[in-house]
Amino acid sequence: MKVIKIDKKDWAGGLGKLSDAYRLFGPVKDKDVSDFKELAAGELPDFDFLNTNLSAKSAVFPQNEVMFEYSLDESQEDHHIMKEPEKDYSPRAVIGIRPCDAAAFLLVKRNFDTPEYKDPYWIRAYEASTFVGLACNDPGKTCFCTTAGCGPFHEDGLDVLIADAGDHFLAKAITEKGEALLQAAGWGAEADGGQIETMKKAAEAKISSTVSTDSLKDKVTTELYDASFWEDTAFACLNCGTCTYVCPTCWCFDIQDENYGKAGIRMRNWDSCMYPLFTIHGSGHNPRGTKTQRVRQRFMHKLKYYVDKYGAGIQCVGCGRCVRLCPVNIDIREVCEFMNSYDPAATTCKAA
Amino acid sequence: MLGYTDKIKEISERLLKEGKVDMVIGFKKGTMPMMNEPCVIKKAEDAGKLVWDSNCGINLANYLTDRKEKIGIIAKGCDSRNIATHIVENKIRRDQLVIIGVPCKGMIDRHKIASMSETEILSVTDAGDEIIVKAEDSEKTLKKAEVLQKNCAVCTHRNPVIYDELVADLVEEQKDADRYADVREIEAMSAEEKWKYFDDLLAPCIRCYACRNACPLCYCPTCFVDESRPQWVGKSTDPMDTRTFHFLRAYHCAGRCTDCGSCERACPAGINIRVLTKKLEKDCFESYGWEAGLTTEDRPPLDTYKLNDPEDFIK
Ligand code: SF4
Ligand code: SF4
Ligand code: SF4
Ligand code: SF4
Questions:
Q1: Quick one: A79 and A153 in the same domain?
Q2: What's the rounded mean pLDDT across residues A193-211?
Q3: Half-sphere CA count of B175, side-chain side, radius 13 A
Q4: A41 and A158 share a domain?
């Protein structure tokens, strides 16, 4: 599809026009920390970031989301009836999402949008969204996207890919949605697409961090599950859940009812397999009662169960957030290496 | 810090070899700048993995809770005070432990150093009283004293309070530290200003609970925020629920908090969350002359009762 040149002096004006037709979301900085927020009128996304602290998943899958409202007031006719609240699913544009976060949307789509189950909240928000990606000219030291199924100029999951070329942006329309957005912004000067290819190669060459995932699918699940390295790997873990909250590919949520007087909401909140509460049964029994079991679950899910179930690579796009933000430095790249190179024969008791 | 590391390795290897302990809890080098990873060493030949430098800010007492083994544990001043607190609160027995004391020279503030650099930091190394920060296109030498964690800058118990082995000579304690300047600043605010200050402080909180989980005091089997049958506190990032979590947690730590700074260090949102516990630490000091974890003899002020209590309301 075509490549458009956007002069930086036309950037704010174009976004202004867009805001008539779209709700705009973008990275903004608060006390040094960059995160995705809905942009206020006239507010510009701040592109001075390596990647946001939290992923862009919240634009479609917010940390807290009301699913139903109800009344406990028995004088009301509709008391105790769950009703879906009005929500704004008008078109929204997520401006400045990194290609890894966009790739992650396709990956979590496998969970929220299946032939069998369709999550209405996620799907409506997703379909209302146009994703305008910001290519990474200077990937970070902890970015390992190129070996995790995407890359700094990766296009899957995006509607437009924007690359910063100094005094102008190059914008490549990837889908019809994307083309419509560029048009709505009034950006139309066609440019030569070759430059993006050159920038892409340069960016990919800068990626210094990698993972090997080639052997994961051939490992025997039960052997990996019983591997001796889990205990040591999990030792430092605080089970804080930071890794899962910041991750663009973690999709788990918990459903809670909250009442205020006679009015109530049923909401869903991000949940984390690192929390004991995640698996506790009504009986009080917890099948994943120890820290080691929980840490193993996170990595087995991302790097083994998912791999086996979907045959589409790992459940990780290599954004590196969990590596950067884990308070005790548990590093998925290391764990992936343990798993990918695991040889049970080398660790079984020699005397046996 | 090389001397410290060598000595830590030597002591740990000896303890493991002689069978005095089943494991040693310490730090190994992390994969990220300014991050060392808490680790457990079970074989004497693995003791070489242990390291020590200014990036060992996580409180290791947290890893002792309810363990049954005989454990060697590396302990800087604050860790040792939390170990003492753990012993008093029956979370570990003194005779299970061989405490390898580390006279501490303070830990560096990873959030601050990261925010001082324009580009990504590649490495941060100790060089005596200085810290060398290498980034993509620059190398900076910082005075360690200027980039200490806020709690370390005002710490008056750098030496371990209980120990069985010592990795170096005791260090001189800081005497002129103004320990409560930050708290006084908030105390002086009007009610509205305080409200705004706390709102602002907690706004970025994602309720991941890294602060709580990094804290050795937070060992309840089920934290009040996790109670779900029924809920005690709402679970979303609603500001009122978030405040409830933080203020209540702080009160649960009153008289027990050693101001080790683990909570603040762990927070992925970079929240200066320690100001809450610090205020209570100040109150305990001023009301009862109490500093947590200095002895294994006395119980913290808020879980004791004396018949001759001077306050009327309690009689
Ligand atoms: S962020 Fe680190 S410490 Fe926290 S749950 Fe994840 S792996 Fe464990
Ligand atoms: S597992 Fe870590 S690196 Fe992979 S997508 Fe999630 S946060 Fe990013
Ligand atoms: S609080 Fe004191 S003992 Fe603890 S790390 Fe800081 S300087 Fe060391
Ligand atoms: S660690 Fe930070 S973000 Fe997480 S709950 Fe504590 S204050 Fe909130």
A1: yes
A2: 95
A3: 2
A4: yes
Q: Same domain, yes or no, for A287 and A197?
A: no
The pLDDT tens digits for A46-66 are 999 999 999 999 999 999 999
- Token digits of residue B44: 């004497």
Ligand 3 neighbours, Cβ below 6 Å, are B 76-78, 104, 106-107, 151-152, 155, 158, 260-261
Other CB atoms within a 10 A radius of the CB of residue B1 amount to 19
Q: What is the identity of the amino acid at A351?
A: A
Any bridge partners for residue B28, and if so which? Answer: B37, B50
What number does the ligand 4 atom closest to the CA of B270 have?
A: 2
Ligand 3 pocket mutation, candidates B76, B108, B154, B259, criterion most atoms within 8 A of CB: B76
- In the DSSP assignment, the letter for residue B50 is B
**Residue A31: its pLDDT value, please?**
81
A12 and A141 part of one domain:
yes
**A74 and A138 inside one domain:** yes
Closest to B40 (Cβ–Cβ): which among A141, A232, A333?
A: A232
Whether residue A323 is contained in a domain is answered as yes
Q: Does ligand 1 have an atom closer than 6 angstroms to the CB of A233?
A: no
Distance of CA B177 from the midpoint of ligand 3 (Å): 13
Mean pLDDT, chain A, integer: 95
Give pLDDT tens digits for A152-181.
999 999 999 999 999 999 999 999 999 999
User: Same structural domain for residues A242 and A185?
Assistant: no
Among A328, A331, A335, the strongest candidate for a mutation testing the B interface, having the largest count of B CBs within 10 A, is: A328
What is the structure's pLDDT at A294?
A: 97
C-beta atoms of A32 and B115 within 8 A: yes
8 A C-beta contact, residue B258 and residue B78? yes
Whether residue A45 sits in one domain with residue A111? yes
The reply to whether A351 touches chain B by the CB within 8 Å rule is: no
Q: How close B266 comes to chain A (CA, Å)?
A: 5
Q: Indicate whether A262 pLDDT > 60.
A: yes
Residue nearest to atom 6 of ligand 2 (CA): A247
- Per-residue pLDDT, B315: 64
Residue A13 has pLDDT above 80, yes or no: yes
Domain boundary among A154, A185, A205: A205
Contact yes or no for A189/A173 (Cβ under 8 A): no
| Chain B interface includes A239 (CB < 8 A) | yes
Q: Residues A236, A119: one domain?
A: no
Among candidate residues A150, A180, A205, the one where a domain is terminated:
A205
**Percent of chain A residues past pLDDT 70, beyond the cut:** 98
In the numeric block, which tokens belong to residue B29?
Answer: 């080098």
Domain count for chain A, please give it.
2
pLDDT, tens digit (0-9, with 9 covering 90-100), for A278-324? 999 988 899 999 999 999 999 999 999 999 999 999 999 999 999 99
Closest atom of ligand 4 relative to the A327 alpha carbon: 1
A140–B contact, CB cutoff 8 A = yes
Chain A residues near residue B122 by CB distance under 8 angstroms: 141
Residue A350 lies in a domain: no
A205 touches chain B (CB under 8 A): no
Query: CA-to-CA distance for A155 and A172, rounded, in angstroms?
Result: 9
- Tell whether the model's pLDDT for residue B20 goes beyond 50: yes
What letter represents residue A290's amino acid? T
pLDDT tens, position by position, B192-221: 999 999 999 999 999 999 999 999 999 998
Tell me the backbone φ, ψ of residue A52, rounded to 5 degrees.
Answer: -70, 155
Hey, are the CB atoms on B269 and A331 less than 8 Å from each other? no
Q: What's at A133, amino acid-wise?
A: G
* Chains A & B: contacts with CB separation below 8 Å: 104
- Domain of residue A319: give its range: 216-340
Prediction pTM value: 0.93
pLDDT score recorded for residue A352: 42
**pLDDT attached to residue B301:** 86
H helix or E strand, kind and range, residue B184: helix B181-187
Span B293-314, average pLDDT = 85
Nearest to B38 among A236, A256, A277 (CB): A236
Q: What does the alpha-carbon distance between residue A266 and residue B192 come to, in Å, rounded to a whole number?
A: 33
